[in-house]
Amino acid sequence: MTPSARAQTAIELLDEIIVAARDGGAAADTLIARYFKTRRYAGSKDRRAVRDLVYQAIRRSGDRPKDGRHALVGLARQDPEIAVLFDGSPHGPAPILKEEKGARSGPLPGWLAAKVGDALDEKAQAALLGRAPLDIRVNRRKADRAEIAALLPDAVLTPHAPHGLRLPEGTAVEGLQSWADGMIEIQDEGSQLIALACRVRPGMTVLDLCAGAGGKTLALADDMDGQGRLIASDTDRARLSRLTPRAERAGAEIETILLDPGREASTLGDLEGKCDVVLVDAPCSGTGTWRRNPEARWRLTQDRLDRLTTTQAKLIDIAANLVKPGGAIVYAVCSVLDEEGAGQITAFLDRVPGFRAEKDLFTAGQYRGPGKLMSPANDGTDGFFVARLTRAC
What we know:
Helix 11 links the parallel strand 5 (205-208) and strand 6 (229-234). The chain starts with a helix and ends with a strand. Helices cover 40% and strands 17% of the residues. Strands 5, 6, 7, 8, 9, 10, 11, 12 and 13 form a 9-stranded mixed beta sheet that branches. It has 3 domains: 3-106; 135-183, no CATH class; 189-391, Rossmann fold, CATH 3.40.50. The chain has helices at residues 3-23, 28-37, 44-60, 68-76, 80-83, 110-116, 122-127, 145-151, 177-180, 189-198, 215-224, 237-241, 243-250, 264-267, 302-322, 342-351, 376-379; strands spanning 134-138, 156-157, 164-167, 184-186, 205-208, 229-234, 255-258, 275-281, 323-333, 355-358, 366-368, 371-374, 384-391. The chain has 17 helices and 13 strands.
């Protein structure tokens, strides 16, 4: 492919990604993989160059562009090396017209900027779109961090998570023998700290209410050392089913409960007042994970945010009924928005008596109301809000 043909390919892919973001379709990575699967003529250098162009355009545009050309023209207006690719050559994009300004540059959609301005300055907002590191967590039931670090000489210690290592970008973790043997799991340092905030111990009864595929559940299992009762529940059958083979590989014993949406409380009725810890890693906007999914900005709307905050409040209330006296709820969202974080927990504490927020969580993050906010700029983690709420004895 010529450089201009790569630019035109990037435009076509951006067209698909923009439509998918608008209509709730597949993620950008999936669309890119599908595109090249049917175009075998594109070599590895072509695929890499096109992918880089696509993601440069995505990261640049906070608001969803009207189409792929609009997105790439905006990038070309800032980069002369990209602008020359609009040369009208065969298989290349038509020249840029004087009146074509392209998509607006900015880290956030316009409607969202005011919501995070108080929590994150411009530098911190831009960091939400940087490249995410590759972190792993060492499964201490099978290895220790020093042992794994010796096996992986390019690894460095994570600064805050005591069982984490950071690997070079592009490391094929699932091809490592240590991964196959269940000694390590891919997990962002922020997620590891959320599990740490749960402070679970052997013999406890612990529920991961929104477990998904169980990354944090596995970290909790490691801390429980196979003693006690650990339950992972979720309403998504496909995601929850992925936990079983992961648990087998890690040597962890975990119960799973598939929840019926709207009937979660009744399904979990036998746990009422019995849990030492309930982790509520609630469905959220994902604003803290834009480094990994930058086009997710184009999917978020105020209506969707309103639905998410309603769900979050419901889940915290369910958790409150399951925690025993002296037990704790650990609430987490991969979001930097107060509506989902500090504001959500403040509202819970106002409406549900008998709970108090603990402050001593971990070294990372900055206090934000009743919890802590971690961000890529300040902590090198994904963006997370975390609060630990203890029920009175």
